[in-house]
Amino acid sequence: MAHLSPLVSSEEMPMTFFASTSTPLYIASWQPRTQTQYALTCLFIVLLCVVSRGLQVVKRKLAILFNNRGESGEDEEEIMGCHAEEGGEKQNKSGNRDFGRGRTRTKGLRGSLLAAEVDVVAVGVGYLIMLAAMTMNVGYFLSVIAGTFIGCLLVEEGTNAAGC
Q1: Least confident segment among 3-12, 13-22, 36-45, 82-91
Q2: How far are the Cα atoms of 16, 26, 139 from residue 131, in angstroms, in the given order?
Q3: For residue 53, which of 86, 87, 102, 143 sits 20 to 30 Å off, Cα-Cα?
């Protein structure tokens, strides 16, 4: 018998969904022992999914911002947080001035680093969500589905996004 990990052997590895309130999540010490702990673990998974949806919105807005494109149909001033000032100038929330098109150009290393940082966090969160679903625990899987739904409603509602 080949062992996959100290927790589960290949014969014990579930290949179908199962219901249990004591399935470990991520590490052996994160094993709910009560129904309250299990519910809190499911709530954590839901929150991870909401954060994941939020990061997807941030990534889209950064792509528009740093690529200097307004082709998505979203209001450019809303995306950039710009507001008009005297003389036709625009100023974004960080105080950077922009003359002309209503957007600041922040291409280059700074923009690439910010986009890469957001992408790394998004991939990490997505990986944690995938691992939760791969436990084959019905409650964890339904938490992923519910969290994605709630995240779509909460995070993307005011963004005019068609990502849901």
Answers
A1: 82-91
A2: 15, 7, 13
A3: 102
Cβ atoms of 82 and 98 closer than 8 Å: yes
What does the alpha-carbon distance between residue 133 and residue 12 come to, in Å, rounded to a whole number? Answer: 17
Encoded tokens for 130: 């995938």
**What value does the mean pLDDT of the chain take?**
77
**CA 123 vs CA 49, 56, 100, 130, 152: distances in Å:** 12, 10, 36, 10, 18
Task: Write the DSSP assignment of 75-99 as a string of letters.
Answer: -HHHHHT-EE-GGG-EE-TT--EE-
Transcribe 27-73 into DSSP letters: BTT----SHHHHHHHHHHHHHHHHHHHHHHHHHHHHHHHHHT--TTS
Tell the residue number behind the tokens 């280059």, with chain if given.
Answer: 108
